Amino acid sequence: MTTPIALTIAGSDSSGGAGIQADLKTFAALGVYGASVITALTAQNTTGVSGIHQVPAEFVTAQLDAVFSDLDVGAVKIGMVAHPPVIDAIVAGLKRWSPKHVVLDPVMVATSGDRLLAAEAVDALRKKLIPMASVITPNLPEAAALLDEPVARDEAAVEQQGRRLLALGCKAVLIKGGHGEGSESIDYLVGANGTITLAAPRIATKNTHGTGCSLSSAIAAGLAKGEEMETAVRSAKAWVSAAISAADRFSVGRGHGPVHHFHRFY
Known about the structure:
Elements: E1 5-13, H1 19-29, E2 33-45, E3 48-54, H2 57-68, E4 75-78, H3 84-97, E5 102-104, H4 119-129, E6 135-136, H5 140-147, H6 155-166, E7 172-175, E8 184-191, E9 194-201, H7 211-224, H8 229-245
Parallel strand pairs: 1-2, 1-4, 4-5, 5-6
Antiparallel strand pairs: 2-3, 7-8, 8-9
Helix pairs in contact: 1-7, 2-3, 3-4, 5-6, 7-8
């Protein structure tokens, strides 16, 4: 029996709700073995980020090569990459090892509002990493920031931004509507064959720390298990919605608490 394996390349969250920790919890919850390449250490909790320590690019390369030379990685999720040399190391590693699927979550701002990506890193992300992605998963502010445009306010504007992001070279774009308004949270999956809208009820909770990380890693988990892109995205959206719904079962921290990754189990 083949064990599905997914790799997360991202930053560590010392409070355990986002980043590498959220990704590994997501993989485990969805029956996928998780490996990790850590790009940065953050000092953070549910109220905000107080420090970021970059991992040297050559050590990111060492982690990548160690994982790929031994593990049969079915899908890669990329999260926080805040430093251009690290982006270059990841691009070189992906070219060396050619994973079948790459899910890129362009993490630019934390749930708490703290900016995680410097301007020069945004440019490297846009030109070097996005063209290698099977799918990118920006939220509304991140999609706007990648294009240097205002945040989209209606469905037509969201779809137009999705098309412009697709033109940067990725195979698909999932623009997440969690930052939107209204009773439903609507995500838009934009691909070469058109746009699919994915709606879920908007859940009233402040416990949304790590939602974006968890969604992108859930998509990677589905792809690692052999699912088609649309199926993986639909399954991930349903799973994350349930994890947000169950988040208030937890009492963790004083700020934006984590979602409940293991809601199916306890």
